[in-house]
Amino acid sequence: MEEFKPRKKERGGYKKNAMWLSTIHHDQPMKPLDRAIFWIEFVMRHKGAKHLRPLAHNLTWYLYHSLDVIGFLLACVAAMAFLSIKSFLFIYQKFVTMGKKMKNE
To answer: Which family does it belong to (predicted)?
Structure first.
């Protein structure tokens, strides 16, 4: 299969490339209308074709929207923020008390 290479200097190169890509796109074993008819008849033959339905239809609403993952990530961010604030407050208090001891001496 030939690779697509844009030609800039050749006259009519854009049109030639567009026509070549069009022929590749239209190279299909059956027409789109025939394919649509086949799939409609397939679904009718298999009574709704439940085997082709995506598995996302079987998920609960909170799993479908990934609320469990979002909740876990928010809990991790909240824990990190809480630990950061507490550690900064602890370090700040140590420096403040150290500064007061230096002034008292």
So the answer is: Belongs to the UDP-glycosyltransferase family.
